[in-house]
Structures are given as C-alpha cells and as structure tokens.
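Repro:
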Amino acid sequence: MIRTALEARAGGLVARITLDNPRKLNILTRAALAALAQAMREVEANERVRAVVVTGAGDKAFVGGADLEALGALDPASAREFIGQIHAACAAMRDCPLPVIARINGWCLGAGLELAASCDLRIAADSAAFGMPEVRLGIPSVVEAAMLPRLIGAGRARWLVLTGETIDARAALNWGLIEKMSKSDALDSDVNSALDAILAGSDEAIRAQKRLCKLWEEAPLAESVHASIDEFARAYESGEPGRRVAAFRAARKRGS
C-alpha cells in the first residue's frame, strides 16, 4: 500500500515514498492515509535523509482522489474524522523539515491534488491531469485545497473547485500549479535533476529555507522578514557559510 525506499545519491540520502495501489489509481483509503503519515514520520526521524519524493505506482495516477466507497458511507461525525486523516497526511508533507517533491505521473484529483499542493515542488508528466471534482459529489473541496489560491491565484483556484473540471499538464504549468512538465519517459530524469540541485546545497541551509518558505506563506510580511534575519544569523553558528564561500572563491580563482 505504501512503499518506502532509500536511495543514496551523490549529495546524500533520498527517501522515495510510493502509494502502491495502481489498480485503483492509488486512491487514499483510511489505511493508506494512516500509512502515508507514518511513513513521513519515519523518514523525518532518519537524520541521514535529505529529501523526499512522493509518487504513485504505475503510469496512470499519482493519486486518483479519496476512496469513493468511504466517502459514500460517511455521516457528519465520521466525515470530520476522515477529512482529518487527509489533513494529517497533507500536513506531514508541509511540516516535514526536508524538501518534498511530488512526482506526478498521471491523474491527480481531489485529495491527491491537495497532497501534491502540500509538497514543496511538483514535477508532472505531460500526460498528467489535475482536478478538484468534489462539488460534483455534493461536498466542497477543503483542508489543503486552501493552498490552491496561494499557488495559482484566487480566480483559477475558484475555477477548479467550483466547476470540478480537470486541466491538463500544460495548463497546470501555465497556471503555476506545477513547476515543471516532463515527457513521460523523462519524468524520472527531471525529478533526479531537481533532487541533485537541492542536494548540492547545505543540509542546514535547505532546512532553514523550507522553514522560511512555509512561514512566508502563513505569516505577515514583517514577521517573515524578522524571522529571515534570525535564520540568516543562525546559519553562521556552524561555520558552514564561511567554508562554502571560501571553497567557491578558490574554485573561481582556479578557473580564471
């Protein structure tokens, strides 16, 4: 249901978390949601891991949405519990101190799009499709759907959640819903290139940058600026900036 694999790359260890139910488009069942949140906690606890990739098994879907059987059987009390599980899985992505990349290999719908929106970067195959069809099932899009106006603007977010229509990968790229669109056979190569670019940075600096990115989305401007100053000063406690700047200058001098 959820597979976690650790991969050693030149810049460090990467965790790859896969929702593994391709026959049902990797839908989010209660069990899958609990297992996904647990997998993220385990990865976060591994001090050797420097980045995370989340994807769906097969070539048809990243996540095709929430379990329709579960949705159809909910009452007001159980609905609150179920949507709380979806929020917990999404929050595990946003709260993870490591960069999280969504590798989107097909359908990315409903709760699946909320999960992708909770990641730091989204790289999608050109065959991927995106949508928030919940209103057509009599329920609103909620929890991390609140990330959509921040990613694509209020009007486009309203288009998705009010019409329930799907958009293709090209439109998702143009709207800013994804950061990169790849040919299907180049998806893994592009994900790996993004990973290597991240891993080239200092581990502590990358963690600090993720903290700041999350704060910038949530806090007033003045608070964000002051927190940025604190993070900048804290970076020098390890001596890492001095070492990296010296190495960069030496390399540039050798190349001149």
